[in-house]
């Protein structure tokens, strides 16, 4: 069926060329190959091959449905809608973004196809005029990379950012190439020595290993980290410049490897992170430890299973690869009977509900840039549940995220067992406990001064007693 779809797309795009001069079918094929590498299902790969057919050829969606079925046609229709989103500065196209989130919520595969499409467009950006290069790169950094991050698609997010970086900030890119990347190369040589020592130790302990490799930090991610206050452009202060990554068959093996690593090398205090027992909100799972390695140099080591690795690289797409999503019939349109999205994707439903509740485009964009596309933190409830919030969120935002009743009756908060004021900014890793007063009449309008999320502000306005 995929071969048939390729031949159909080849015929539909016959005679068409890209700005690079190559045949148009190369783009369709590159999109489909990326989707296949992610392990996506057949319908998605076919839709990847056909995604530009209705817009750019004489063939219609009706033709596609007749030849490949309604599921493929629906996916292609969703991509066609997303293709119409044009970047004109983030303030000017909130309506198009609303449509995009509705398409995502109706079938998350549409945005996965769009990510694959966007990746190949970025790879061939050099053939476009400079103004268009920058526009597409900015859109990719401000819209597509954050969505990929929220979907747990680390590999895709990283590639989108790295491909966009030289067009959005060429001076910074050149500085990174000139000053920083040579130091990364030196660190790679050191990591190879670490890997040899560790591989021998694991073999001696008869521990089965799927792979051990060095993972250099991506250039755009590294640049942003260097700009932060503790680092101040000093690359020597960054411990995960190049990390060693160990992939082993099972969760038990992960913890076994961690013990062996700590027998070999002394860990840094406070630098062991267990994202297996406490995954990140986007589903990322792994063990991270930072140790004093050979020659006393500091090195980060990441340990995970193949399933965790696929989740870290491809996020939501990994569910198709490992069949963890179960029956795909669960992916129904919002509002359909029995519709469910995985809990960690509830933010997509939030975006759809906002677009119904917030008619003012500027207010919608403000909430969007803060709640959806801004930096995220994850905070724990006293029971260990993870709450995903925007950076600088407060206990009031946390309370309303847990439940409206808790927010309305919030009387105080403890962060890490310490009483704090309700306007205190939360940080990743904090444990937040909300103190409630069931006799409280409702929230205080004063909370609007420091509440950060759209949901919290809306509920405060709606439920605060009238003065």
From TrEMBL:
<protein>
    <recommendedName>
        <fullName>TGS domain-containing protein</fullName>
    </recommendedName>
</protein>
<dbReference type="InterPro" id="IPR012676">
    <property type="entry name" value="TGS-like"/>
</dbReference>
<dbReference type="Pfam" id="PF02824">
    <property type="entry name" value="TGS"/>
</dbReference>
<feature type="domain" description="HD">
    <location>
        <begin position="24"/>
        <end position="122"/>
    </location>
</feature>
<comment type="similarity">
    <text>Belongs to the relA/spoT family.</text>
</comment>
<comment type="function">
    <text>In eubacteria ppGpp (guanosine 3'-diphosphate 5'-diphosphate) is a mediator of the stringent response that coordinates a variety of cellular activities in response to changes in nutritional abundance.</text>
</comment>
<dbReference type="InterPro" id="IPR043519">
    <property type="entry name" value="NT_sf"/>
</dbReference>
<dbReference type="InterPro" id="IPR012675">
    <property type="entry name" value="Beta-grasp_dom_sf"/>
</dbReference>
<dbReference type="GO" id="GO:0005886">
    <property type="term" value="C:plasma membrane"/>
</dbReference>
<dbReference type="GO" id="GO:0015969">
    <property type="term" value="P:guanosine tetraphosphate metabolic process"/>
</dbReference>
<dbReference type="Pfam" id="PF04607">
    <property type="entry name" value="RelA_SpoT"/>
</dbReference>
<dbReference type="InterPro" id="IPR003607">
    <property type="entry name" value="HD/PDEase_dom"/>
</dbReference>
<comment type="pathway">
    <text>Purine metabolism.</text>
</comment>
<dbReference type="InterPro" id="IPR033655">
    <property type="entry name" value="TGS_RelA/SpoT"/>
</dbReference>
<dbReference type="InterPro" id="IPR004095">
    <property type="entry name" value="TGS"/>
</dbReference>
<dbReference type="InterPro" id="IPR007685">
    <property type="entry name" value="RelA_SpoT"/>
</dbReference>
<feature type="domain" description="TGS">
    <location>
        <begin position="375"/>
        <end position="436"/>
    </location>
</feature>
<dbReference type="Pfam" id="PF13328">
    <property type="entry name" value="HD_4"/>
</dbReference>
<dbReference type="InterPro" id="IPR004811">
    <property type="entry name" value="RelA/Spo_fam"/>
</dbReference>
<dbReference type="InterPro" id="IPR006674">
    <property type="entry name" value="HD_domain"/>
</dbReference>
């Amino acid at each position: 069926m995929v071969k048939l779809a390729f031949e159909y797309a080849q015929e539909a795009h016959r005679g068409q060329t890209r700005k690079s001069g190559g045949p148009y079918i190369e783009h369709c094929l590159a999109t489909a190959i990326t989707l296949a590498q992610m392990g996506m299902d057949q319908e998605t790969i076919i839709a990847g091959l056909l995604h530009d057919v209705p817009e750019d050829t004489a063939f219609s969606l009706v033709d596609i449905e007749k030849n490949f079925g309604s599921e493929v046609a629906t996916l292609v229709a969703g991509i066609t809608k997303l293709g119409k989103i044009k970047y004109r500065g983030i303030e000017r196209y909130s309506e198009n973004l609303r449509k995009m989130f509705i398409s995502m919520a109706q079938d998350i595969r549409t945005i996965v196809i769009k990510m694959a499409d966007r990746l190949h467009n970025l790879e061939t950006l050099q053939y476009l005029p400079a103004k268009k290069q920058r526009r597409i790169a900015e859109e990719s950094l401000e819209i597509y990379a954050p969505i990929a991050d929220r979907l747990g698609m680390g590999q895709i997010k990283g590639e989108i950012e790295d491909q966009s970086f030289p067009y959005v900030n060429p001076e910074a890119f050149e500085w990174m190439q000139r000053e920083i990347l040579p130091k990364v190369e030196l660190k790679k040589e050191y990591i190879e020595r670490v890997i040899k020592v560790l591989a021998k130790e694991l073999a001696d302990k008869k521990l089965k290993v799927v792979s051990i490799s060095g993972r250099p930090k991506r250039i755009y991610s590294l640049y942003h980290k260097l700009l932060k206050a503790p680092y101040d452009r000093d690359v020597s202060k960054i411990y995960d410049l190049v990390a060693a990554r160990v992939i082993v068959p099972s969760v038990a093996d992960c913890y076994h490897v961690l013990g062996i690593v700590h027998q070999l090398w002394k860990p840094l205090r406070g630098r062991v992170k267990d994202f297996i027992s406490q995954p990140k909100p986007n589903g990322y799972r792994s063990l991270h430890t930072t140790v004093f390695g050979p020659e006393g140099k500091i090195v980060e080591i990441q340990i995970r299973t193949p399933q965790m690795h696929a989740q870290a690289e491809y996020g939501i797409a990994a569910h198709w690869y490992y069949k963890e999503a179960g029956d795909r019939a669960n992916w129904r349109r919002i509002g359909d009977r029995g519709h469910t999205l995985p809990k960690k994707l509830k933010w997509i439903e939030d975006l759809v509900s906002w677009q119904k509740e917030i008619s003012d485009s500027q207010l919608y964009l403000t909430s969007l840039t803060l709640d959806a596309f801004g930096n995220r933190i994850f905070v724990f409830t006293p029971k260990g549940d993870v709450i995903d919030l925007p950076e600088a969120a407060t206990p009031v935002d946390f309370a309303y995220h847990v439940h409206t009743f808790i927010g309305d009756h919030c009387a105080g908060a403890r962060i890490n067992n310490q009483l704090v004021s309700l306007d205190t900014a939360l940080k990743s890793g904090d444990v937040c406990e909300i103190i409630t007063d069931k006799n409280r009449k409702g929230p205080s309008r004063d909370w609007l001064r420091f509440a950060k999320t759209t949901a919290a502000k809306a509920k405060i306005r709606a439920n605060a007693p009238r003065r």
